[in-house]
Each structure stands twice: as structure tokens, then as C-alpha cells.
Fold each of these.
Amino acid sequence: MLFHESSHALAGSVMVAIAREFRERDKPIPRDLWHALLFYTTGEMVRRDVSYGSLAAADPQENGSPPYETYAKRFGLYSGSWVRFRGMLDLYWLPYLDGRISFDTAIARLAAAM
């Protein structure tokens, strides 16, 4: 239950920060931004865990299977109405996930760019 509660706290923090930054800029929050960010973050974290060997995954060299592909990429979530989110997340959210910029900076830059 602790993981579930902490994930809600984190999700709430992200949603509050997004709302704050867009409100400060007097911009509407783009529909599905939250979902695109959630799929992007989850996919990137799982991809890293698989790459670093933290998660058990079939070795592509052993069984000829392709390397890990995120759910969003595999099912084309960043096409259609989500296409604009992918580039923005690469530019402004990935540096946060990499530990190169702060959470607040990432959200502010994302809001400013939209």
C-alpha cells in the first residue's frame, strides 16, 4: 500500500506543478499532457531498468527478440494528437529524468514551450 500512496503523492505533485506553471502563463493545459508525460516517464524508467539489468528481460542476443520498446512507442501513442508532446518531452522533461535540471525547471520550460 505504501507504493500506491507514494505514487499518488508524486502524481499529485506533478499535476499541481503543471497547473501552476500554465496558470502563471495564462495558458490552457493541453489535453492529454498529463497522460503523455506519464507514459513517457514510465517508459523511460522501465527502459533504463531493462538496459541496466535491474529488470529481468529476455536477452535479445539469446533469443533473437528485438530490444525493449516502450509501450507508447510500440502502440504509436505519440502519433495523432500526441505527436507534439514527444519532442517537447525529449527537450524539456528528459533532462529532468537524467538529473541535469530540477523538477521545477523542467515543468516551467515545458509550460513555456507549449
Note: The CA atoms of residues 46 and 70 lie 8 Å apart.
Amino acid sequence: MELNPTLLWQVVTTLAIAPLAYFLKTSLERLRQMEICLSRTREQLAREYATKADLHADVGRVLDRLDKLDSKLDRLLTARVGGAE
């Protein structure tokens, strides 16, 4: 049986390319899985954490309420001190 050089070259290239193709296929599948995981993580972060604008608005509302409470206490103390004299 005589080995044809073309046939031998095809076998050698197939044996060299097959593992490379398998590696690329598994790498692409893993990359897709990581992209899915990353998008889920981004969604979870958006649900659990406040943005800077939301936090700023909430702190602003709290400070407004404290200012109103402060002014009410000032009026109350002024009325009591003025009435006690």
C-alpha cells in the first residue's frame, strides 16, 4: 500500500486543525455564558443600588424636612420664651 502525499497532508492538517476548532468552539461558548452572566449582574446591580441622582434627591428631601422641623422648633421655643416672660 503506497501512501499518497496529498492524502497524508490532508490527514496531518485535519489532525492539527480539529483540536484548534474544538478549542475555538468551547471558548466561544464560554464567552457567551460570561456575557449572559455579566448582563444578569448589571440588571441585579441596577435593582439593588441607587443612582447618584436618586441618592441626591432623597438626601435633599431629608434635609428639607429637617429645615422645616428646625424652623418649627425655633417658633415653638420663641413662643415659650416670649410667653414665659
Note: The two ends are 125 Å apart (CA to CA).
Amino acid sequence: MNDHDAVDIGKHVRTYMIVFGSLMILTIVTVGVYYLELSVPVAIGLALFIATVKATLVACYFMHLISEKKMIYWVLLLTVAFFIALILLPLLTIGDVPGS
């Protein structure tokens, strides 16, 4: 192992430690939000936003998706689009309830 490899590994470890620290801070923020007197929709929205940021950090750095090709992002985007469509599908069928 030469000096260049050691510097490169050190850079990656530093990045992982920064991401880990960010995740810990966001976890503390999530716990802090719990103690705020917020309405339920605002609290859920804020919690989902923080969870999305944390999931993005994990996926990008620990799962190494930040350096993936664009095709991966299109597949992920398509998955999110289908997920949203499936979540919203019951809202479109509310008026079509038999017997009402």
C-alpha cells in the first residue's frame, strides 16, 4: 500500500464520518421536533422531510449511489412515480364506492 492509497482511504473515511455526524445531528433534530407542540400534519410533514434527507444521505454515500450512472436515477425516479401513483390510487376511487 503506497502513500496515495492511504490518502485516498483517509479522504473516504473523512467523508463517511461527516455523513455519520450529519445523520446523528438529524436524529437529534428528529427527537427535538417530537417535543415541539406542532399540529399533526406539520409534525408528520417535518418528520418525513428529515427522514427523506437521512435516507438520501445513506443511499448516496453508504450505498455508493452518488457515483452511479444516470440510468440508476431514472429507474429510481420511475419507482418513486409508481409508488406515488399507488398511494394516490385510493383517492381516485373514493367516489366509486358501491352502495353509496
Note: The chain has a mean pLDDT of 85.
